[in-house]
Amino acid sequence: MKLKLLFILFFIAAYSFAQPSATQIDNKGTGLNVIEIQSNEFTIAPNPAKNKLNIKLQNTSEDLKLEVFDVLGKRIYKGLITKLESSIDVSNWKSGVYLVRISDDTETQTKRFIKQ
């Protein structure tokens, strides 16, 4: 049962990575204009981590919601990101795989991280 849940969570995480960035198409006037919407991409490091997980945003104009889930889907951390670089103390967390989700009113991104 746990293996099945783990597979489902990895499938969901892999699917979220495969999604293309949103685009807006405007066909008014004489031509076709395609405007790419900048997403709030983020990186996590180190991965795997022992004590501290660093989160770095490429850009942001507003506070973003940060949530971390274990492989069973239980939320173990909730907070706000208010600057381009933030850190979370993970030293007391159990070893394993976690999903880090950052979201705003219009977009959600999820990345996987491993706690050693």
From TrEMBL:
Q: Name one Pfam family in it.
A: Por_Secre_tail
Kindly give the InterPro entries that the UniProt entry links to this protein: Secre_tail
UniProt keyword list? Signal
- List the source organism: Winogradskyella thalassocola
All copies of the Secretion system C-terminal sorting domain together span: 45-114
Hey, what's the signal peptide range on this chain? 1-18
> Has keyword Signal?
yes
- The protein's name: Por secretion system C-terminal sorting domain-containing protein
